[in-house]
Amino acid sequence: METPGVLVRILFLLLAQLLLATALGLRNVSQRTFEINYNQNCFLKDGHPFRYISGSIHYFRVPRFYWKDRLLKMKMAGLNTIHTYVPWNLHEPLPGKYQFSGEQDVEHFIRLAQELGLLVILRAGPYVCAEWDMGGLPAWLLEKESIILRSSDPDYLAAVDKWLGVLLPKMKPLLYQNGGPIITVQVENEYGSYFTCDYDYLRFLEKRFRYHLGDSVVLFTTDGAYEKFLQCGSLQGLFATVDFGSGVNITAAFLLQRKSEPKGPLVNSEFYTGWLDHWGQPHSTVKTEAVTSSLQNILAWGANVNLYMFVGGTNFAYWNGANTPYAAQPTSYDYDAPLSEAGDLTEKYFAVRDVIQKFEKLPEGPIPPSTPKFAYGKVGLKKLNTVEEALDILCPSGPIKSLYPLTFVQVKQYFGFVLYRTTLPKDCSDPTPLSTPLNGVHDRAYVSVDQVPQGVLERNNVVTLNITGRAGATLDLLVENMGRVNYGRYNKDFKGLVSNLTLGPDILTDWMIFPLKTEDAIHSHLQGRGGHGRGHHVETLARSSSNYTLPAFYVGNFSIPSGIPQLPQDTFIQFPGWTKGQVWINGFNLGRYWPARGPQMTLFVPQHILMTSAPNTITVLELEHAPCGSDGLDPCLVELVDKPVFSTTLTYDHPPTKLLTQDPWLDHM
Predict the structure, then answer these.
(1) 615-627: pLDDT as tens digits
(2) In the annotation, is 206 catalytic?
């Protein structure tokens, strides 16, 4: 039996060892430093010169199920760092309602990168661009219609301050000097391209980032390699970097950075590996040889570089952005990146890897293979009901009544669809123009009179439509938000009917407005009053004189055999003969399809949303015209295939520049 004195000595020794271990651990953390050495024109990591070779990945465009797969493939390409944005609207969809779990668990994503030996560059916003809805700014900011986004407008600053007070404390423990992987943090994004050029706003951000993250973190800005952009986008205390793609004069680009930063590391924060797409334009690709040639030259300069994108991913649900003149981006954000939308290894991946290994030692071990894909084949869908027939389940709280139309924000509906309803004030037996004189449909309106389809009004393209109907007939406009502008002056992008409509010379009034809770309805399997009713009949009559059918839901099932270890596998869904709409599988909103316009013809279906234990349910909301008879005898077919399809492709020798392709208004406003 031990004496009390011996026990005390043992406890004392254990306590001393614990204190020593704790002190050593703290010392190890305190020895972790990441800073800029202006004398040697480089970053210093733990006191030693360091150059990052990074790739962009957006955790919000890649299913959490695949985060590790994509990050590991990035590491095995020779990258030592990853870039990611944080979109404010993803994490605060409603004021004060925060989401940081599951697919939105950015902290888990960052820790996972660290576990794999990758450093992280955090692009914290509050604005990110990213071809993401409203550039990551929440639509509810527009509830104050006069707000000036990305400026020192007090209402905007108050919202930003509150958001940063939630986000940045979560990021502080993940900073490199605190034991995490985050080496640098971007403040705002490409601010020099924005019309406000408000240095008070940048100073406000710099102070708030310092307050929450401390004085030792490296804060930086990014702007296009144009003198005007760097003048408005940079600020003393924030390290200025540039972005540019292949084909740009690298010497000239870095000389522009040197005008803002005479000393310090050379940094290209967005070296474009491909380019973005828009509906109705060819799929963009950039030649691998152009990318690798410029990358080799950048690395030969000793510069730090981030490849944007290294994996693009997917704009699931309604998250895509748009550019001006209004052009919405598609569901795919493939970007012709080294890793495809589905995470596949491409020729560009191996070519980039070959360049990197000339400058850095590649990690040992196998590269994870491309995930297998499976063609499950054709699936028949049956019409369930039209939007009008499902209104009781789509809008259970009933309509909002207003003399004049209200916008999406005014009825607190930020994404998806709103149905606007009024009655014809006069007889329109002869075709009568229904018009939006102020281009007030944002973005597409599917028009019917007494459930007879009339056509589509479309922002910037179709502002007048001739309709027919009797006095007192029901006029419905199902308005779709196609994605908010993400870049430039016009990102203050209101949706819905944003101005009055006229019928002939008369302004239409007395509206009933139905904000559609489509996601809730899908999850309840659209079990409203259903049926096909009179809409079924008049739709049949209307088809002979119209290319349109009423917006309607279609549902079908397919089974995947259980007991086969390889299944389920990723797949792609194709829409032969369909026109435009939205698709869900097992309640997961895959995004928009629009084969009538292209270039995207298939949507990526990740395996984790599929089941072998029960049939998989496909729900489609077709907005314009389905490829089957309204009598229900001809099935509507979709097909699950094992390869992505694009209708047209345009290959660039070098990617376009944002100055030319996204910002045509800068010098004209």
Answers:
(1) 999 999 999 999 9
(2) no
